[in-house]
């Protein structure tokens, strides 16, 4: 048997050449030895010449008749040379065997037109086998003098084994080197077939030797026997190879039947390398230009910009197209280091493989697309499209998951953040600007959040941040402050700077009720913050009137307006020094049929959002003017203050409506004070300027409510000339403890003096506050110290408790209350209302 190596290129060539060279050199030694002994054993008879010629013929035939197996670009042949050599050793002198091996193998190489290196290797290897065999026979003294048949077969077996081992020993390294496969694997390949082949060839050799012993003429029967055995054997090899190939193809197409494109490509590359025994396999996809390249063991490249392949030889490109030849998804390339011709079976396999791969790629791509769409849907289902933040559902899901494991990860809390006056941005600057505000707010919140936090947009201008793994509940407030502080700097909307105000509510995860309860508590806290005029508030169970949901309230508004469920209470505004009533602020109340009295901060926003604002505002104004009319009729000509929603100021019809109501109730415009809250709309929009100018020009008085809490207070004042400032109650509440609060009050009073404005302090709750305010120069105030908001009739009754035409005092005069009588410094007539009856202190 012999295997011959195919031609190789560059890299391994040198090692291959060295190896073959070594074999040739060793073989030359054997040849020289043989030639030296040739003269002594030169064939002299016709019979000898016949034997010599037969030997050459047998070896030539043994070299030509062979079964071929291709490994990568190398074809290996299993031939009969060594059988012929062993037979030769039995019938001829050693030097003849060597000589006929050289000649026979050379002749077969010429017949097969083998390349020089293959021929050299074939001759060298077989000469070495012949030499080895000869050496063993001389050691064993074989064939010797007519031994027993058993002895003959036994010795022949040893000789044959040596020949076969030498064959494998010499061929394996060369094949392994030439085909680039590991030598161990090479050895294991088709081991059973090879062993069977050896056995058959040994049997042939043994028979031949026995036949020769009986009658050399029967030797003529050997070639047909060999040929038929050979045909059977090579057919077996072919069947085996094909069977394996089909099984492998079946396994491969099975393995390609997966939905993951990566796996399809990896499997295809490694399997195709094996299936077609290629040095490298490359798959290039049309869609995206992805190229995957590798061999039976590794993926060497996977990407879109491959370097030229390192395997430089023959390339076999196969389009990856379906059976219908349409829709080609890319190309499969088999690379071989040397020239290769695929058998018909291999070509068919290749086409089948390519079409299976095409289907697999198409399926995987379709699946990937489906998976992507599903992922998009999942993302869209859990995220807000505008801001990319989590949506309400995601927050609830994540929160619920967090709450069930909260003992493991510390404290969970929720911060609810609601933008104030967002609707104005939308209505006046357009939805594009509104969206921009939301996007920027989302970015700010995301930036201020910790990695563990989940930032969500719940809808509209409402955001929530789920705080996870807090070390202690108290930390939540700090985090909430940080989140709200992130909204402090004005936003930049195409060059226009816009401030957003927001209120935050904090709730720490409750023991029961889960996420829904946490959200509800944060919502309650947020409304507490709004009501208290604070930036953030923490949920306090004591202040929770759990049954109210502003959402359900929102739906009941139309009925409330139609059924006049909104009423107005009046909170007196008093002269701080004397305690007399000098005005009253109308504060809306909702007498809900089942919920009872509802605070304005719980429903105002819903009213503003509902489109019912004009009707609501008109109803409140009407009631306020009716009340003012009733007081005047009773002899108390007090101005009434009415709060105005910023949104009303965007309505150009608003001044007309106000003036119409004044006329209807026959009240002069200066009996009405409209309280405006500082908002961005107030400061930035022309329509507001026009509305306010028209009101002002008609004699209606304007007050800036909650002064000091907003922004741009000063720039606002320069644009909108108001008559009155109302110091926010948060400053009054804090003036005794916080120097900053006192400073704000002082500077507001200074401002009032220099601009000639009335200044009213809100939220006066104690005598010390009243006195301190008075000492700072504040003339007017309102608050629980004097009275809570009262129904119009109750206020009238209080007024009527006054004597001698003076309005009833709601507190003793300051100089009555203490031993020391002090006059507040630098008071002007304007900021110091004169207390006498039925006069309007705030009239110029
Ligand atoms: P505001 O204009 O600052 O009204 C003063 C709020 O402070 C009132 O709350 C009043 O009850 C409360 N208050 C009065 N004295 C004290 C005190 O000594 N201590 C404390 N802590 N609070 C005091 P109310 O009635 O809940 O009104 C809340 C806000 O709702 C008002 O704040 C105003 O902005 C708005 N509002 C009320 N009525 C109307 C209305 O008819 N139209 C519009 N657009 N807004 C209204
Ligand atoms: Ca007010
Ligand atoms: Ca206020």
Automatic annotation (TrEMBL):
Keywords, comma-separated and alphabetical: Membrane, Transmembrane, Transmembrane helix
Name recorded for this polypeptide: EAL domain-containing protein
Cross-referenced Pfam families: EAL, GGDEF
InterPro entries assigned: Cyclic-di-GMP_PDE-like, EAL_dom, EAL_sf, GGDEF_dom, Nucleotide_cyclase, Rev_trsase/Diguanyl_cyclase
Residues forming coiled coils: none
UniProt KW DNA-binding keyword: no
Species classification: Bacteria, Bacillati, Actinomycetota, Actinomycetes, Micromonosporales
PANTHER family in the cross-refs: CYCLIC DI-GMP PHOSPHODIESTERASE PDEF, SIGNALING PROTEIN YKOW
Residue intervals of the EAL domain: 550-803
Regions crossing the membrane: 16-37, 49-67, 79-112, 149-170, 191-212
Keyword Cytoplasm on entry: no
Organism: Micromonospora sp. HUAS YX12
Annotated stretches, region: Disordered: 824-844
Record GO terms (molecular function): cyclic-guanylate-specific phosphodiesterase activity
Domain GGDEF: 410-542
